[in-house]
Amino acid sequence: MNYNINEKGYYGDFGGAYIPEMLYPNVEELRQNYLKVMREESFQKEFRQLLKEYVGRPTPLYFAKRLSEKYKTKIYLKREDLCHTGAHKVNNTIGQILMAKRLGKTRIIAETGAGQHGVATATVCALMGLECIIFMGEVDIKRQAPNVARMKMLGAKVVPATSGSKTLKDATNEAIRDWINNPVDTHYIIGSVVGPHPYPDMVARFQSVISEEIKTQLREKENRKNPDFVVACVGGGSNAAGAFYHYLDNLEVGLIAVEAAGKGIDSGESAATSALGKVGIIHGSKTLLMQTADGQITEPYSISAGLDYPGVGPMHANLFTSGRGEFISITDDKAMKAGLELCKLEGIIPAIESSHALAIFETRKFKRDDVIVVNLSGRGDKDLDTFIRYFDL
Amino acid sequence: MNRIQNKLSEKKLYHNKAEKLLSIYFTAGYPKLDDTVEILQQLEESGVDMVEIGLPFSDPLADGPTIQDSSQLALKNGMTTEILFQQLKDVRKTVSIPLIIMGYFNPILQYGVEDFCEKCAEVGIDGLILPDLPLSEYKEHYHETFKKYNLINVFLITPQTSDDRIRQIDTASDGFIYLVSSSSVTGNLDGFDENQENYFNRVASMQLKNPLIVGFGIKDATTFKQATSKTEGAIIGSAFIKTLARNGKSGISNFIASIREV
Question: Is-contact B236 B259, C-beta < 8 A?
């Protein structure tokens, strides 16, 4: 079986482009050009150079000695938290801004939940001198004031999404509506492996630099290309897609996706899509999503704003239903404790999203000689307030 | 032939006569859960030619604030696909104009596409407009099912749709083509300009086999007249919902009469 995308834009039964006709010309233009552009030598050269000199890649693959001792296994951390802007998100925004320029677009829009993708988009727009409009739920704007300020400092206009629940899914709706209203000059930089084809594949390819580097780095450190397991948190799933990408068809490597259980899968306040979702259509993609029996999309909950999405990307829906991926959900409490533990054991303050992936070691046993790579997708500076309140620091 | 085709077999008639086809969109379950059938009856009595019944969805991507709000309120009122079908059970005893369900694909996918189509046929629905069901998916997976239940699927085209694709859509259509007036979500326009008129002219001159019905941005007699000067008819949605919000059901006949004013 092949776990990558097929020529029709599907991962197994998931994916496609379920979009209104108003979006067809834009999405079709992208579909016809994205692979061609990405394969151009000049594109690769510019992309690689910016990743190296602007983002600071390659990010280290760090052997977490004390964490490994505690859990009696071999744990490596892929340090995406050291990327410029503080998370893996920038790998994708660099790629997409170069794509947008080659397609002749002059205006950039994006959605953001916690603000990380918004900041990463505003950053590359400043870098390239392009107009930038970020849609962000009104509720999130209040919750994430520092990131709103960052986006403004970087020259972006932040537009509150006031529809629906006023969070990430509504910000995405508003970005899509803006694209419908501005079909010629605008490129929509989607922040995760979600949305209509070709977005899930394009974003996964830009993020695939993560697993590309892991392969090289692991050979240097362990004299092997493949870890036994790769662990990553999944909201929409872009950091997981990047960390899994070069191992998708290599069945010797276990792929572990960690979702946010929120206050518990059965609590009614959760974002564990694989456990709670059914097949449906969200933001132009056929995938697993949380919805009512009547097909209305429901509100997810997680303490981490970056995992607070009611669906998963179609790649992950396929990894889950095919059994290729192991899906585990972690509660707010376990994630917060795992985050704090990494601070104490390794001197690294992780994002709450990434803390979910770290909580795997309290949940699942590994063998002593297993080599496990955890994708540390982002740093925790943005989450200080939540940590302070949670632990009464 | 179903009711839409019957109605539109008068295409030439519509094309030449002063009074063009007027279609109204409203959200089922808005303003009150049980208003659906009474609104339909009043629309028919007021001389409306066809109605799109909106099946509310939590995330209506192609809609502006007016229809978003009416959808949210309808859902809050408790509207579901099943309740809509219950409300429409006897609608054909009192309403004879063509009825179309307009909605997003996910609720229909959850209901089961074949079950949904069967129910539509049972209560007397004539067609479907599902903006996020793309042409390729429809042709590959759903065309046969729609046909089996004598349901007409209506596709949208926009100012950005290429001539090639318009031809493909014309071939795949057997009712009418929904001409989206501008690159915009619903309820977002302040009247039409030269760009729209050029676009209406361009598509009208393609001599398509299907009649053209314009939607998005039509809100009064003037825009209705502009939209239909080269086409067979037009659809009013957001402006009608605003009337319902302001005046309730008692404002329906006056609103329709105001559109027909010449």
Answer: yes
